[in-house]
């Protein structure tokens, strides 16, 4: 039996009950406290549901790990270090640290949900499968070769640079086609419909029943198709991701979307922040591109709704492909318009500035000191998070939730429940031992943080001496300088993002390759698993 579709019997005479209370802390972190006590039989596990309404056969609801939302080009995301859990109404915890440690390097791939689930189910001990590891090696070599050529031609005149890149795109295309075929083989091999958020065995929720589900739920179903539907090409999956984003925002893709301040561009799901003031001709070009693309997306969504109850997945894939083939002229026109927009937007200083590092308001010496402080702070937080994650993977019978803030490590240690909600046999002595171990790591983190804080205060005092003792003004300058330092840390990722979307002369496969590298380099928070839905 497939390890991802196991069935369990509900407990009948459990002697332990776990009272779980959840509270929100620091935005997205959910703190779960569990207390073991003698009492009546344990209630059914919230993950155990009838396979279909009216059926008595239980099944385990799996967590589905979707990648994070890619921010627009130029936006610097705030990185959170910790092990998040599901929202309290889900009733169970599904951390992300194991998935992040092993699967995070594949966050831009359509095989990511299946790989993240495999890693999560094994507690982080499962190695990357051989075929996926082979894919990573080939992918990284191709990224390296492409970045080498990009840097060689960076200062060339625009026509010469584009011509050279087009020649290199032709040279790389056979290898890229082979790489994408390998990625699809691995995705198909590790993914199946039973892992999807709206899996058939869950008494499947349906896209064609929008009144019963929120836009967020419908968006998850569209993402399901993008990640789990067999028989689609990569660009078709990418377009579905953009449809999913539209559905989450507006319920359905709009024919003429309101301008949100950014352009949904290609390769999907990239976005570009638009300057507030645009020449009329460029604004009209953008509006025409958005309108045509939205019309294609709306038709794709309508086709998806019409085929949602197809008994065979292959029939749905065939109808989706048939629709997209019928819009071949529109898709070719979109590609032509996208190339024109690349040349126009790439010339805009406001767009280029999103990639170029901003000049720090501090002197060069002070700016370098602050840059080192920011880098050391990030390194410390990551090292502390890695140390706690190692304990979490070792202590498989304990539930350890934590977050590393800018000043301290906060954590909670409780016994972990089985899928039948019975508490595993673990002594409170072991809980206390692990708490003491993590408390020592918290003290180590605090001591290292105090050293960094001394350096920061010394810099602040030096700046105060040059600004006639105006504390408020000094703090404003330091805040702006810190934002610049954070931007400089992500310059490499932003350059990859810029090249993927706006550098003329690249092939779609090369753009896809660079955008994936940018997504990994952005070091985005991985969302926690979303437990599979059932009919409401």
Name a few traits of the molecule.
11 strands; disordered N terminus; 15 helices; three-stranded antiparallel β-sheet; single chain; 536 residues; mainly alpha; two-stranded antiparallel ribbon; 53% helix
Mean pLDDT: 77
Enumerate how many helices there are, as a single number: 15
What integer value in Å does the Rg equal? 25 Å
Whole-Å distance between the termini? 28 Å
Backbone structural class = mainly alpha
Strand sequence of the main sheet, in spatial order? 6-9-10
Q: What would the principal axes of the Cα set say about the shape? A: globular
Helical content band: 40-55%
pLDDT < 50 stretches = 1-58, 84-98, 419-423
Q: Strand-and-helix sequence, N→C? A: EEEEEEHHHHHHEEHHHHHEEHHHHE
Please report the total strand number as a whole number: 11
The percent range for strand residues is: 5-15%
Q: Quick one: biggest sheet?
A: 3 strands, antiparallel
Write the layout of secondary structure elements.
Blueprint: E1 16-25, E2 29-38, E3 48-50, E4 58-60, E5 63-64, E6 81-83, H1 97-103, H2 112-121, H3 130-152, H4 158-190, H5 215-228, H6 234-250, E7 262-264, E8 271-273, H7 280-306, H8 313-326, H9 328-347, H10 349-352, H11 364-394, E9 398-404, E10 409-415, H12 428-466, H13 471-489, H14 491-502, H15 508-521, E11 530-531
Antiparallel strand pairs: 1-2, 3-4, 5-11, 6-9, 7-8, 9-10
How does this model look, in words?
It is a single chain. 53% of the residues lie in helices and 10% in strands. It has 15 helices and 11 strands. It has a 3-stranded antiparallel β-sheet, covered by helices on one side. A hairpin with a 3-residue loop joins strand 1 (16-25) and strand 2. It is globular and about 65 Å long. The model is unreliable at 1-58, 84-98 and 419-423 (pLDDT under 50).
């Amino acid at each position: 039996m497939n390890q991802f579709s196991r069935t369990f019997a509900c407990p009948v005479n459990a002697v332990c009950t776990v009272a779980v209370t959840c509270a929100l802390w620091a935005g997205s972190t959910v703190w779960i406290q569990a207390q073991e006590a003698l009492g009546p039989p344990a209630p059914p596990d919230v993950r155990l549901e009838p396979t279909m309404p009216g059926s008595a056969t239980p099944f385990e609801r799996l967590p589905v790990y979707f990648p994070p939302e890619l921010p627009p080009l130029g936006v610097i995301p705030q990185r959170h270090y910790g092990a998040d859990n599901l929202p309290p109404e889900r009733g169970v915890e599904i951390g992300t640290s194991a998935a992040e440690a092993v699967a995070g390097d594949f966050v831009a791939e359509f095989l990511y949900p299946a790989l993240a689930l495999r890693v999560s189910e094994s507690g982080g001990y499962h190695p990357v499968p051989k075929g996926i590891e082979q894919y990573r090696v080939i992918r990284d070599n191709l990224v390296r070769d492409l970045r080498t050529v990009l840097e060689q031609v960076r200062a060339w005149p625009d026509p010469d640079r584009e011509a050279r890149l087009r020649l290199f795109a032709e040279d790389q295309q056979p290898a890229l086609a082979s790489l994408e075929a390998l990625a699809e083989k691995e995705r198909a091999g590790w993914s199946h419909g039973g892992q999807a958020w709206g899996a058939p065995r869950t008494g499947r929720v349906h896209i064609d029943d929008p009144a019963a589900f929120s836009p967020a739920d419908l968006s998850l179903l569209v993402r399901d198709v993008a990640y789990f539907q067999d028989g689609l090409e990569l660009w078709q999956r990418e377009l579905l991701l953009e449809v999913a984003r539209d559905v989450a925002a507006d319920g359905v893709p709009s024919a003429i979307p309101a301008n949100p301040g950014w352009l949904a561009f290609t390769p999907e799901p990239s976005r570009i922040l638009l300057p507030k003031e645009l020449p009329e001709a460029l604004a009209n070009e953008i509006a025409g591109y958005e309108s045509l693309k939205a019309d294609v997306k709306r038709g794709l969504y309508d086709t998806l709704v019409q085929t949602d109850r197809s008994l065979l997945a292959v029939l749905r894939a065939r109808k989706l492909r048939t629709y997209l083939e019928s819009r071949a002229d529109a898709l070719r026109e979109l590609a032509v318009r996208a190339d024109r927009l690349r040349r126009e937007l790439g010339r805009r200083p406001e767009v280029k500035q999103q990639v170029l590092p901003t000049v720090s308001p501090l002197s060069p010496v002070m700016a370098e000191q602050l840059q080192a402080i920011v880098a050391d702070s990030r390194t410390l937080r990551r090292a502390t998070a890695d140390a706690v994650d190692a304990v979490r993977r070792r202590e498989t019978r304990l539930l350890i939730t934590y977050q590393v803030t800018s000043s301290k490590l906060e954590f909670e240690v409780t016994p972990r429940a089985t899928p039948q909600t019975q508490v595993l046999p673990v002594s409170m002595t072991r809980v206390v031992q692990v708490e003491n171990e993590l408390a020592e790591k918290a003290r180590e983190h605090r001591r290292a943080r105090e050293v960094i804080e001394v350096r920061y205060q010394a810099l602040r005092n030096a700046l105060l001496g040059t600004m006639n003792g105006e504390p408020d003004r000094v703090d404003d300058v330091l805040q702006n300088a810190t934002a610049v330092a954070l931007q400089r840390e992500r310059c490499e990722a932003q350059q990859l993002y810029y090249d993927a979307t706006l550098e003329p002369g690249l092939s779609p496969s090369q753009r896809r390759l660079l955008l994936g590298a940018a997504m990994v380099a952005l070091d985005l928070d991985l969302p926690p698993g979303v437990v599979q839905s059932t009919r409401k």
